[in-house]
Amino acid sequence: MKRSVILDRCVRAEFHTLVLISLFLLFAGHNQPGGGFVGGLVAGAALGLRFLAGGIDEVQQAARFHPFAIIGAGLLLGAATALVPLAMGDQLLRSAKATVDLPVVGSVHLSSSLVFDAGVYLVVVGLVLLMLRALGEPDTDGSDREVVG
Question: What backbone phi and psi angles, to 5 degrees, belong to 90?
Fold first, then answer.
């Protein structure tokens, strides 16, 4: 497969910007439109662009963790967010809030829903990585399949 130099350069230039936008959507999600699902989709789109530009090798270079580990971490965060309030004698998925003063940023409002959204973000990114890996890996059974359409 012949690679396009222009596509490679454009995707490499846009990739980090798209990941930052996805993180912005994740962090702004509990106060504004966005959240873990939308942020995960934007990060997945960035990984999809890497796949189109360079194949599965580019995706594996960008995301060094195994997709099942990312999905498992997301599920663990979501389950912990749901069950910790229950262990404290409160309702399931009860939200907790806190305000932290950071030196450069100033006052930051945090919520436990952000942790849940981070879990959703990781699950979505892990599923996109799993799908891209399935599309990019060669067949292991050795058969050549033709798409009939």
Answer: -110, -175
Residues near 94 by Cβ (< 8 Å), separated by ≥ 6? 85, 112
> Which of 119, 100, 96 is CA-nearest to residue 108?
100
Task: Please state, in angstroms and rounded to a whole number, the distance separating the CA atoms of residues 149 and 136.
Answer: 21
Top-confidence residue, 29 or 43: 43
- In single-letter form, the type of residue at position 41 comes to L
- The pTM score is 0.84
CB 99 within 8 A of CB 109: yes
Asked if residue 118 lies in contact with residue 77, where contact means CB atoms within 8 angstroms, the answer is yes
Scanning the chain, the segments in alpha helix (DSSP H) are 5-28, 36-54, 56-62, 67-87, 112-136
